[in-house]
Design goal:
The complex is a heterodimer of chains A (230) and B (272). Chain A has 230 residues and is α/β, with parallel strands linked by helices. Chain A is 37% helix and 28% strand. Chain A is built from eight helices and nine strands. In chain A, the strands form two sheets. In chain A, strands 5-6-7-3-8-9 form a six-stranded mixed beta sheet, with helices on both faces. In chain A, strand 6, helix 6 and strand 7 form a beta-alpha-beta unit. Chain A is globular. Chain B is 80% helix and 0% strand. About 2% of the residues of chain B have low confidence. Classes of the chains: A alpha/beta (230), B mainly alpha (272).
């Protein structure tokens, strides 16, 4: 039996509105999730159901009001594609800053520059300001940086559909390779085929509450029926 | 549970040496890249480092000395000793004030400590100011035959100014997270500070009974200290400099500790 590396028990999270100060928004209600070693857990839910907030609470970026988090992972990383990019700097320079924001030392990220350059398939564009990049090229650079950062638990927030079809396949393969090498992942995606292909287990989040969880194919069928009934 | 000051300090030192080194390295790297990014947009590039303070000095000189026929023969030196340190202070505050909120996407996605960003702004502005400060120092060395002791005193006053800048910048950047309206008040607050800090006039030109109160302002204190070393070849307000340094360093310690320990709460403020 696989050991549990992260356990969330009855997590609640609410915020006070910015304009309506007295109104409290309950974003997550009694959310309980277990992540096992070398497994991929999918989170499925409509926009505004609290998926991204949940990842930020797991990362320790946001506090939770109630509940308990038991974490056995040494490092958890959220895969962000273009966050922190400076459009006046080259792909190479952005790689260094981005890698350091992921917690890598300058030396560590510099030693991976060639690997990232090759993986991103940006060729000579890698040394040009990223203001010249298309959206797909930016995402490719972002993914190439993120995938080289070592992590125990990777949190992926709707960022797997990167670039064109061939690059998208490459990213999925890289994720699978990482999982084979002992990494675990939590995947948020609206792509049901992608979730079915990658996830061992899926949790369905609706208005901040987990309404069901189980094997991925069962949950995808459940989600489809739930959506049709609504 | 409350820790003593000594315990807290030891905790901060031992907290995570590698994390501390990483944060320092990140601050330095990001500052250098920010400067590169900033100047890459301009046609004249790094020439603006010298051109910008020169234009400021020229503007105020024309207004105060020529149009208003105000000041002494040494007015250009008084103006330089006031305006150049003031520009360093003012730009640091102006950029740092939005340093945390402007980088909220990075803070909320990577979990990077919010304290990194005001320090990046401070270092970015300080690196940009360094060539100007160096050339102005050279100008005063040649004009007033400054001794090595005077140069050392100027460097110490420079260090004091940096302490004032760090304290003010990190405090303002934190306050703006809690009270966004401050952003609107900062430009007018800085203008007020500029006029009450003796940027355009020397302390001796204000009434005697106000001179002691004038030096309670740390900005006026470092400007007057620069002037006393350059024009009188002596460091006059040593006690005030020491007392202010101690107060501000303790203040910096507590603000850094607060921001480091309340990372999640600050992130919450950024999204709500």
């Amino acid at each position: 039996m696989k050991k549990v590396i992260l356990k969330l028990e009855k997590i609640n999270f609410s915020i006070r509105g910015n304009v309506t100060k007295n109104k409290i928004f309950h974003i997550l209600k009694d959310v309980s999730i277990e992540i096992k070693d070398r497994s991929v857990v999918g989170i499925l839910g409509n926009n505004g159901s609290g998926k991204s907030t949940l990842l930020k609470i797991i990362m320790g970026i946001l506090p939770h009001n109630d509940g308990k988090i038991t974490n056995f992972c040494k490092n958890i990383k959220l895969l962000t594609l273009t966050s922190g990019f400076d459009h006046n700097l080259s792909g190479r320079e952005n790689t260094i800053i981005s890698g350091m924001l992921y917690g890598q030392s300058k030396l560590e990220i510099e030693s991976k520059i060639n690997q990232i350059h090759q993986y991103s398939e940006l060729r000579e564009y890698f040394f040009m300001p990223i203001s010249t990049y298309s959206t797909g090229m930016l995402s490719r650079l972002g993914f190439a940086i993120a995938i080289t950062i070592p992590t125990d638990l990777l949190l992926i927030d709707e960022t797997l559909s990167v670039g064109d079809i061939s690059f998208s396949k490459k990213t999925e393969k890289s994720i699978k390779d990482k999982l084979d090498n002992g990494m675990s992942a939590i995947l948020i995606s609206h792509s049901l085929p992608q979730l079915e292909a990658l996830c061992d287990e899926i949790y369905i989040l609706n208005k901040g509450r987990i309404i069901n969880h189980g094997e991925s194919s069962d949950m995808i069928n459940y989600y489809k029926k739930h959506e049709q009934s609504n | 549970m409350f820790h003593s000051f000594k315990d807290s300090f030891n905790m901060l030192i031992k907290m995570d040496k590698s994390n501390f080194t990483h944060i320092l390295s990140l601050i330095l790297t990001k500052s250098v890249y920010n400067i590169k990014s900033e100047f890459s947009k301009n046609r004249l590039g790094y020439i603006w480092v010298f051109l910008e303070p020169l234009l400021y000095i020229l503007t105020y000189y024309v207004v105060f000395k020529i149009f208003l026929n105000n000041g002494t023969d040494e007015y250009i030196s008084i103006l330089i000793t006031g305006l150049v340190p003031w520009l360093w202070f003012m730009k640091s505050i102006a950029i740092s004030s939005t340093a945390i909120i402007n980088n909220q996407s990075i803070i909320l996605n990577s979990g990077t400590s919010p304290i990194v960003f005001p320090f990046v702004s401070i270092l970015q502005i300080s690196i940009r100011q360094f060539p100007t400060l160096f050339f102005i120092l050279m100008y005063f060395i040649l004009k007033y035959d400054l001794t090595w002791a005077s140069i050392l005193c100027l460097c110490l006053i420079c260090a004091f100014q940096l302490i004032v800048i760090i304290f003010s910048s990190i405090l303002v950047s934190l306050l703006v997270v809690y009270f966004r309206d401050l952003q609107v008040l900062i430009p007018s607050g800085l203008t007020l500070l500029m006029f009450i800090s003796g940027v355009f006039f020397s302390r001796i030109s204000i009434p005697d009974h106000l001179q002691d109160y004038f030096l309670l302002n740390p900005i006026a204190l470092f400007i007057e200290s620069y002037r006393s070393v350059i024009f009188n070849l002596s460091i006059l307000h040593i006690n005030q400099l020491i007392v202010w340094s101690i107060i501000l360093i303790i203040g910096i310690y507590f603000i850094v500790k607060y921001i480091s320990s309340k990372k999640q709460y600050i992130a919450l403020r950024l999204i709500s």
